[in-house]
C-alpha cells in the first residue's frame, strides 16, 4: 500500500510539473532566453536534489547515491541527444519560439516509453540472468559506434524515418506556425512541426535503448531507476535552451560519452561476478566529463586564437 501511494504521488507530482511548465510559464510561445533557461535549469536541478534528499530520508544513503548517479548518467548521455535536436530544428527551419512546445510533447512521450522500457528491462533481468551480458555487450558496441561517428555530419532529411513519415502523411511544407496538423480543403495535413516531433520521439527511443540498460548497472530498484531517469528528462528542455549555442563547441563530448558507455557496459558484464562500488562509478563519470570539458575549452580557445 505504501509503495502504491509512493508511485501515485510521483505520477501526480510529474503531471503538476508538466502542467505548470507548459500551461503557466510557457503558455505563450516565445524564444527562451539564456537567462530564462538558466533559471529554469536551476529550478529543475533544485527539485531533483530535493527529491534526492527525500530518497535519502525514505530509503537510506545507498539508494540516494544510486539516484544521483543514475540522474548524472542520464544527464551526461542526454547531451549528445541535444546536439541532434539542434540539427533537427535547423534542418526543418522550426522557429526558436516553437522549440519548447515540440520538446515538451517529445519529453511527455519519452516519459511513457521509458516507463515501458524500464519495466520490460527489469522483467528480462528477473527472467534471464544472462541478460546482463547482452546489455553490456550492446553498450560497448554503442560506445564504439559513437566514437566512430564523432565529427561526422548528420543527414536528417534522407533518414529512413523521415522518408516513411512523409510517405504516410500529406505535408504543408511551408507552414511556420505552432500546430502539428492543419485542415486544408476538408483534409488534414501534417506540418513540419509534427515531422520534427516524430523524429525526436524516435531519437529518444533509440537513445533509451542505451540509457535504460546503462542505469541497470547502477541499480535494479524500479523506483530509483524510473525517478532518476524522469527527473533528468524533465530538465532536458531547459538544459537544451541553455546549452544549444555551445553544444557544438563540446569537441570531446562524444569521446566522453563513448568512454562512459564502455565503462558501464563492462560494469554490466561483470555484475554477476564483481561489484564495482557506486561511488567509483559516480567518480569515474564525473572525472571523464570534466576532462572532456577542459579539453574542449582548450581546443576552442586554440581555434579562436588561430582564427585571429
- Share of helix, binned: over 70%
Chain-averaged pLDDT: 79
Number of domains: 1
Q: How are the strands of the largest sheet arranged?
A: 1-2
Calculate Rg over CA atoms: 20 Å
**Based on DSSP secondary structure assignment, what is the total number of beta strands?**
2
Unreliable stretches, pLDDT < 50, 5 or more residues? none
Structural class assignment: mainly alpha
Order of helices and strands: HHHHHHEEHHHHH
Distance between the termini: 66 Å
**Largest sheet geometry:** 2 strands, antiparallel
Question: Outline, from the CA principal axes?
Answer: globular
Tally the helices: 11
Explain the overall architecture.
By secondary structure, the protein is mainly α. The chain has one domain (35-307). The protein is built from 11 helices and 2 strands; from the N terminus they run ααααααββααααα. It has helices at 2-25, 34-59, 61-91, 99-127, 131-148, 160-168, 192-216, 222-234, 236-243, 253-269, 278-307, and strands at 181-184, 187-190. A two-stranded antiparallel ribbon has the order 1-2. A hairpin with a 2-residue loop joins β1 (181-184) and β2. α3 packs antiparallel against α7 and α3 packs across α10. It is globular. The model has no long low-confidence stretch (mean pLDDT 79).
What labels would you give this structure?
308 residues; mainly alpha; two-stranded antiparallel ribbon; globular
Topology:
Layout: H1 2-25, H2 34-59, H3 61-91, H4 99-127, H5 131-148, H6 160-168, E1 181-184, E2 187-190, H7 192-216, H8 222-234, H9 236-243, H10 253-269, H11 278-307
Antiparallel strand pairs: 1-2
